[in-house]
Amino acid sequence: MRGPVAPSCAARATGLRWPLHRASAALGGGVIQGTASEAVLVVLLAARDRALRKHGKTSLDKLVVYASDQTHSALQKACQIAGILPENMRVVMADCDRNYAVAPEAVSKAISTDLPSGLIPFFVCATVGTTSSAAVDPLPELGQIAKAHNMWFHIDAAYAGSSCICPEYRHHLDGVEEADSFNMNAHKWFLTNFDCSLLWVKDRSYLIQSLSTNPEFLKNKVVTPRNFSLVCFRLLPPPSDEDNGHKLNYDLMDSANSSGKIFISHTVLSGKLVLRFVVGAPLTEEHHIIAAWKLLQDEATKLLGRWRLSAWPAIQRTAFTETGQQNGIK
């Protein structure tokens, strides 16, 4: 999640600075989801698992969600998927005198009613631009309530968040710095095709803990030897390297991807971490391949310099050219 270009640009354009400022840069980040419903589900799962780690796995039936009766039904569906009991979703009546935004005191009252019963308030959702009346919930007050009870505070700005690209609408995001997560749909006012919902989180580790999986075959397809446009290669480790070049090659992949110029992935073959370079874009030309190879050479040289391994053979390819000759590294 760290450093995706599109979410970062959208955050700057809308004045959504909190996931990008220095204090949270090492923790937070943005990711593109298919819909706002997916975004709400993802953060609800992360919030649920955070609460269960604190209170114990047997406390699932005590977790309570709070939202307005104007909140999108996606939250109710997310609760059903996440295993939150239907009776533990608190639907607080919106205030007609506030254009049907939720009243913070009503949310506080609902929480105060639940606490003596041993229930655990863990998630509160605010909306910027409700479906019925385009109401904007009071973000600063709801954020303070969430903080006081150690709750996950999510802001669903699926409809109106993109309007904040105009400075005159940015006051609707006052208080967003209190949020743990924030989503808006680029496929509404950003002239983007459908299935593009932007999600930011203040601490991405909660999402990773809830949703990541470790098996390598789920990350990449294993294709070797090269039959098409996939080339597998690895930086040779020294004989004394205890992890057989795992960190060395992972660092090479990370540094190459961090350049923003190319993107490579990895897999594991015979217990060795192998890097994968695949050419699949119809507009890719030879000069792009040469530039990518030069970048890999430069990044490998830097790594080898730090590891004091400049005398080693540089890169071992596990793929072959179309003529059947092994690609040499010079």
UniProtKB/TrEMBL annotation:
| InterPro entries associated with the record | Aromatic_deC, PyrdxlP-dep_de-COase, PyrdxlP-dep_Trfase, PyrdxlP-dep_Trfase_major, Pyridoxal-P_BS
Superkingdom of source: Eukaryota
Query: Sorted alphabetically, which keywords does the UniProt record give?
Result: Decarboxylase, Lyase, Pyridoxal phosphate
Q: Which Gene3D superfamilies match?
A: Type I PLP-dependent aspartate aminotransferase-like (Major domain)
Q: Which cofactor does it need?
A: pyridoxal 5'-phosphate
Task: Give this protein's Gene Ontology molecular function annotations.
Answer: carboxy-lyase activity; pyridoxal phosphate binding
Q: Which SUPFAM superfamilies match?
A: PLP-dependent transferases
Question: GO cellular component annotations, sorted alphabetically?
Answer: cytoplasm
Give the GO terms filed under biological process for this record.
amino acid metabolic process; carboxylic acid metabolic process
Q: Any idea which residues bear N6-(pyridoxal phosphate)lysine here? A: 188
Q: Which family does it belong to?
A: Belongs to the group II decarboxylase family.
Q: What is this protein called?
A: Tyrosine decarboxylase
What organism, scientifically named, is this protein from? Answer: Eleusine coracana subsp. coracana
Which lineage do the record's taxonomy fields give for this organism? Eukaryota, Viridiplantae, Streptophyta, Embryophyta, Tracheophyta
